[in-house]
Amino acid sequence: MDDAPFLAPDASTRRQFLKTLSRGMGGAALAASAPPLVGRAAAPAETVPDEETVGVALVGLGNYATGQLGPALQETTTCELRGLVTGTPAKAEAWKKKYGVPDENVYDYDTFDRIADNDDIDVIYVVLPNSMHAEYTIRAAEAGKHVICEKPMATSVRECKAMIAACERAGVKLSIGYRLHFEPHHQRVMTLGQDEVFGPVTVMQNGFGFRISEDATDQPHIEWRLDEEMAGGGALMDVGIYAIQGARYVTGEEPVAVTAHEYKTRPEIFDEVDETIFFQLEFPGGTVVDGSTSYNGSFNRLYATATDGWFEVSPSYGYGGVQGRTHEGPMDLPRDVNQQARQMDAFAECIRQDRPSRVTGEEGLRDLEVIEAIYASIEAGGRRVEI
Ligand code: NDP
Fold first, then answer.
1. pLDDT for residue 46
2. Residue (of 303, 326, 300) closest to 315 by Cα position
3. Which of 136, 178, 242, 317 is catalytic?
């Protein structure tokens, strides 16, 4: 698998955006709850010799950890589930039994920092509600551990920057849980778009949404998603981010401007976070992207037209069953690879070879810059906002 960084950073177009205020509570929450950003000494994280597996501790044993990451860790070739961090003792018991994790490698959120003294753990994988990503990534870095943090990287640009700085200061690697970078169809569209195989991409339609039904709102993994402080935003933060990612990795460019509108049909559920958003992204090479995201309807597609053809991935963003085609016919690629296992193995390889992750903190930061610009456009009544 090719793990070379795939997007050239374009600092100049982003610099302007730094003036934009962080949206929501995330920044304030970070300031209040995160440990101080200076003055904590971290033992530099070690590289792991080739003959040893990389020990991973999962933080937050919720839906994604239980349904995908725990099982995927059993499918990796170079990683091993060696630690657990949970606030729910019953989960700790069940996971210990299922995966053979020893007692001394189980922590709760208060004892978390003691993981610094545990040589079994090389990587801390943060799978918590969005508003907790920054705090636990920073604490993990300060414990001298490499970090994988789930998407969205954080709830604000400000938090993302603090996370990147903490990891740099501690000398640890930071990776974001963008599993589709390890999925063959998405790797193919990166090449088709960036290498202009069918000519320059002119227009894209990218959307990801699912419906939150009225009777699902009290499920634990939905409850925090409807809470602005915990989630930092609604459908856009949660699944719209895949449409933004797709636009960025097909073009290989950073968007320069955005126009966006939000529609709310069930304000009684979505009183704090966004329900449906349509956004248009303008890229410097001329590509225009029509993006959509929703908690009120299911759609799941990446479609790109170029001057000499088209390509599409549909369904696009799920854990499996991904399917792609071009104007020439179906993409003949495996549809059900274990994206999470590939993602974790690739990160383990980066640690062994001491090189950056394919999906660095800067990747997560850039998406948050676009998300903040989308919210700014909505708040300005759909005005075009430069990024
Ligand atoms: P869940 O609510 O199912 O799990 C979150 C877990 O965090 C909880 O089970 C709990 O674990 C822990 N937690 C600690 N404090 C709190 C709190 N105050 N409120 C709620 N939970 C708390 O969420 P998901 O697993 O669906 O999502 C977790 C993260 O993973 C999110 O950032 C999400 O965006 C991301 N994700 C990524 C996916 C991907 O494809 N890359 C797919 C799905 C989610 P415990 O009881 O062990 O303490």
1. 64
2. 300
3. 242
Report d(CA 373, CA 384) in Å as an integer: 9
Q: Residues for the chain: how many in total?
A: 387
Pocket of ligand 1 (CB under 6 A): 60-65, 86-88, 91, 127-130, 150-151, 177, 179, 220-221, 224, 238
Omega before 9 within 30 of 0, i.e. cis: no
**Phi first, then psi: what are they for 328, rounded to 5°?**
-90, -15
Domains within the chain, CATH numbers bracketed: 11-179 (3.40.50.720), 184-336+361-386 (3.30.360.10)
The per-residue DSSP string of 310-322 comes to: EEEESS-SSSS--
- Residue 200: other Cβ atoms inside 10 A: 13
Is 295 a catalytic site residue?
no
Q: How many CA atoms lie within 13 A of 242 on its CB side?
A: 28
Mean pLDDT to the nearest integer, 69-98: 98
DSSP annotation of 307 reads T
- Say if residues 76 and 345 touch (Cβ distance below 8 Å): yes
Q: List the one residue out of 314, 340, 311, 304 whose CA is nearest residue 326.
A: 311
Question: How many Å is the Cα radius of gyration of the chain?
Answer: 20
Classified as helix, coil or strand, 177 is coil
Q: Which of 127, 183, 317, 340 to mutate to test the pocket of ligand 1 (most atoms within 8 A of CB)?
A: 127
Please state the pTM of the whole predicted model.
0.90
Across 324-340, average pLDDT: 97
Distances in Å between the Cα of 353 and the Cα atoms of 61, 120, 349 are 29, 19, 6
CA–chain centroid gap for 298, Å, is 20
Whether 248 contacts 181, CB under 8 Å: no
d(C-alpha 122, C-alpha 145), whole Å: 6
